[in-house]
Design a protein that fits this description.
Two copies of one chain form a homodimer. The first copy, chain A, has about 325 residues and is an alpha+beta fold. In chain A, about 10% of the residues lie in helices and about 25% in strands. Chain A has five helices and 16 strands. The longest helix of chain A has 12 residues.
Amino acid sequence: MNRLALTALAAPLLLAAQPPEAAAPAQLHAETPPTPAEVIEAATQQDWRPIAPQNLLVMTLADGGQVFIELAPDFAPVHVENIRRLARAHWFDGIAVVRVQDNYVVQWGDPAEEEADRKPLPEGIVEQPPAEYALVTTAGEEGDIVLWHPRDYLFDAYADWTAYEEGWPTSYDIADETRTLVRSLVHCYGMVGVGRGDNPDTGTGAELYTVIGHAPRHLDRNIALVGRVVEGIEHLSSLPRGTGPLGFYEDPAQRAGIAAVRLASELPEGERPAFEAMRTDTLTFRNYVEARANRGGWFIRPARAVDVCNVNLPIRRAGG
Amino acid sequence: MNRLALTALAAPLLLAAQPPEAAAPAQLHAETPPTPAEVIEAATQQDWRPIAPQNLLVMTLADGGQVFIELAPDFAPVHVENIRRLARAHWFDGIAVVRVQDNYVVQWGDPAEEEADRKPLPEGIVEQPPAEYALVTTAGEEGDIVLWHPRDYLFDAYADWTAYEEGWPTSYDIADETRTLVRSLVHCYGMVGVGRGDNPDTGTGAELYTVIGHAPRHLDRNIALVGRVVEGIEHLSSLPRGTGPLGFYEDPAQRAGIAAVRLASELPEGERPAFEAMRTDTLTFRNYVEARANRGGWFIRPARAVDVCNVNLPIRRAGG
């Protein structure tokens, strides 16, 4: 089986933007390919983008643990604006983790959500946001790095293909009738979504979840993803599993309380946490994906492939 | 995109054994497909196989939590025999969980494994077992249910194709030169493997791990899988993450102790736990996979696909 260059693979799909650098990287086909850690180590400051404070949620649990979440306004603008509004109103303060289902999700919200004494939502919340989990788009220059496979195809079980787009794991499906593309964020480990009821447009952002198991890709295009945990997911993923149906806690005393959720932009400048994510439109990211797909050292047989949820985008504290 | 029958998809690969029943199931193409729960509910006793006591490990943690592991002797006979021998010698008693890496693995073994005072292995352990993680086989009737995809192909990013074989998630690769098949168990959530050093044949079974995150498929064909957790994984997956490199615990006090590991066959008959796994060579399992791939109800857009690690083989207490 041949290992094809990323660009050659992506060409028929017209999706791979050219990375800023033009020259082919020498180390891609060197005898000893770099490790993912070596690619990160060799990255320069321009390979990183700051996570904007207005896109960074800081969730502080009652026990002091902190979870940092990057929001994705370019993919789910109405949902994200709802969440910002809830955070600015301090609406999340005092809610709790209500559900931990092993190999699936951790979910937090108002424990009285189904009851008459539920917490009223602040003014301005869009109560029936649009279906931002399945965006109609057109083929063009959207995909930064189309994921690849040595078997001459972009294999993915769930979507026509997958890519990293503007820093986010993304799937594309071709709508047969119109040849338009339907774009969706992908339910990888650590992605954050908006819980909803049976009606497709009932997720306001007041109930959120994050994935803590094998990517439940059947949720793609069914429920809005709005971001990802960039640090501190262990405070959620190591919580005791709920013993009720779907992993809901049966005893309210088991719930982990949430002390506060703030947008970093609302914090005094000196107290703002600052993160950087690796840019995905660069040769460095391409090399990183290649390194993830071709591990040496301990590995006897490199996979020569990587699925969209095994890329694990590098994220670091700013100045790291 | 057409939805093809499982057999039609699998035919060119000569891998799908005919299920025992010959007739096409009416409900597969009914207006309202059954849910996975409904397929399980409708299963009869002959759709289940007992997990043999000599293939069932009972691991009791120091805090009383119990983890039950089914061994896969047909895939890794030498490794499994080592593990049985260690269990019969009560060698595992008093070891500990030494590593918990988020979105990756929980690992347990002798904390002094690298030191002079490590626990000596019992007599008869094969210290350099063969590479049972990449079994050469020939195309034939091996695969029970080849996983499927509506896009006319068995898409998997890592292997030429995937299947459930004799109850286990399995991948196949075609070796170009010889046209023989290389078969491997797949690193799905909850699968249990044998830690090894840099040398490919250094895993005795005295150090084990289980997957607690998105399937790290790059480990397939690189390290021996020997079984899967059938109940109690939450006692491992909810442990605090280690803060050292690779998630190793830095402070020995953080380790979760392991009180005892027993083969169920060594326990008095009245005390033996008994589990059943859904058979995978049946029409019921085929319907179950179809139901997992095509969720209705809350789902707006069924995935019409399922990857090998999202099948989640049904397992229950015997008599359930």
